[in-house]
DNA sequence: ATATATATTCTAGCATTGCTATATTTTCAA
DNA sequence: TTGAAAATATAGCAATGCTAGAATATATAT
């Protein structure tokens, strides 16, 4: 009997609707507008139902953050493959990273400032997180010996640029110049 | 009659007590523990008094963030003067930046993630913000032609490193290596 | 010195939030 | 069809940011 399967499917669907609604609201009105009541209304169930899917509000944000890391990884890989040459790929990846952050500000916020509980270097690290790091390492790797240090530094530079751009603390216009500086640093030995 | 002066002094003192209490609580228990009720209790006044000093809770965080930028500026300058040579100064400044973020995590959080409303490149930008940027530029400046781009990129790299370290997403051990990489990039033409 | 006006502070409460205990309904198997 | 179990809803708690209005203290003018 496929009853259990159907129920499982329906639950997964509803869970998806929850995160989708949360993402939509967060992107259009900010994370403060993402309340349990609002989400319950959106999916047309009562509030306690949400707690049968997620332990608490933060867990919803964390789930979305993990989605985001998966999407970021594919976006970076797509950029890497679209461009030939080491330096060209690095620059493409860097620009893709910043574009991603700019296109989904609430998602990026979930990934890097809301869901701080998601560690990287631990045993329970979700594959999506490792994969995003790996996508960056692939772009950095071929050109350098100290891959890990270089990748961490590359990531930090990109994240810093994304964050300071978002908060309007560095000029929006000089993005390309800053990326060129970062990339030129990492491309050479 | 110095009555108005006395009142002004008392008000300023009370305001200082509010931000001091908020900072203390934030550093020891996190920003969630910084509630208006808690602060009111701490300064031994009723809650509405706080609203005669600050428009709302966020304004308290913003005031603390500005304090933080001032302190960061002096810390960076101290590091720059303590070390001779261009490259040496750059590295000292970088390490001082990361140490500052590590020593006052709640303060740093206030500066860069809580008080997002504080813009840099606008007319109403507080001098403390400009000064912190200037302190970085002083360290970057002598070695480069494109000072502004280089300073923005330097800042972004440092902020990214601080943020990813704080959230445990890059290894705590390799800090020096990453800083060396960043500095070597900016020191050379 | 006293009364009045002004400034200051407090009490009490509203609306919203995350979350949960409990009641109710629906679903499935015997 | 009926009874157990799973799923869902109602109602409410405690905490939060914030504010209206009452009450108190303070300074000035007579």
From TrEMBL, chains A, B:
Residues 35-54 bind DNA. One of its GO terms (molecular function) is DNA-binding transcription factor activity. Keywords: DNA-binding, Transcription, Transcription regulation. It comes from the Bacteria. The keyword Ribonucleoprotein does not apply. Residues 12-72 form the HTH tetR-type domain. Pfam families: TetR_C_33 (PF13305), TetR_N (PF00440). This is TetR family transcriptional regulator. It comes from Nitrospirillum viridazoti CBAmc. The lineage of its organism: Bacteria, Pseudomonadati, Pseudomonadota, Alphaproteobacteria, Rhodospirillales.
């Amino acid at each position: 009997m496929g009853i259990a399967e159907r129920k499982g499917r329906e639950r997964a669907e509803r869970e998806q609707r929850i995160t989708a609604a949360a993402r939509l609201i967060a992107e259009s009105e900010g994370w403060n507008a993402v309340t349990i009541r609002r989400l319950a209304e959106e999916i047309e169930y009562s509030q306690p139902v949400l707690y049968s899917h997620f332990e608490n509000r933060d867990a919803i944000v964390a789930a979305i953050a993990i989605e985001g890391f998966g999407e970021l990884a594919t976006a970076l890989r797509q950029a890497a493959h679209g461009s030939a040459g080491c330096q060209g790929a690095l620059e493409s990846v860097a620009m893709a990273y910043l574009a991603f952050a700019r296109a989904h500000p609430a998602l990026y916020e979930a990934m890097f400032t809301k869901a701080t509980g998601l560690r990287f270097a631990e045993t329970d690290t979700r594959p999506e997180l490792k994969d995003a790091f790996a996508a960056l390492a692939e772009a950095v790797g071929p050109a350098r010996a100290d891959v890990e240090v270089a990748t961490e530094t590359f990531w930090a530079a990109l994240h810093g640029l994304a964050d300071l751009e978002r908060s309007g603390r560095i000029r929006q216009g000089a993005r390309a110049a800053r990326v060129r500086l970062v990339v030129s640093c990492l491309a050479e030995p």
